[in-house]
Write a structure and sequence with these properties.
two-stranded antiparallel sheet, 1 helix, alpha+beta, about 120 residues, two-stranded antiparallel ribbon
Length: about 120
């Protein structure tokens, strides 16, 4: 006896497997802290049926897709100024002491191989 086509029997249950795969993607997206928590996610199932000219049989194509949540935006604070006479931009870092050279270039300090003190080299 033939079994009528249902959502669960179509293509040997392949539609259910496709749904399971998309549901897993949606679930992972909901758990992803980088997406908006309350964004609506959708799973769309489309079944196309193309009958032959005699209308005795047809071909079915199943398509399934999902729309996930949008990624959360991120923010930062950027400071603009000059360093070594060049325009530059830097991000705020909480333990950062000074962003730019307030007094201009400073002398380079090289360690002397024989002592632990350094000697100042102008240049």
């Amino acid at each position: 006896m033939e079994q009528p086509v249902t959502l669960f029997t179509l293509a040997g249950g392949a539609l259910g497997e496709l749904f399971d795969r998309e549901m897993e993607r949606v679930s992972a997206d909901i758990l992803d802290l980088n997406t908006e928590a309350d964004a609506v996610r959708t799973i769309t199932i489309k079944v196309k049926i193309k009958p032959d000219k005699g209308r005795g049989f047809g071909y079915a194509e199943m398509l399934i897709s999902s729309t996930l949540g949008a990624p959360k935006g991120v923010a930062s604070t950027i400071h603009f100024g000059k360093k070594n006479n060049r325009a530059t931009a830097v991000e705020t870092v909480p333990d950062q002491r000074e962003l730019f050279d307030p007094l201009g270039p400073r002398p380079v300090v090289e360690l002397n191989k024989n002592t632990i003190t350094g000697e100042v080299i102008n240049g």
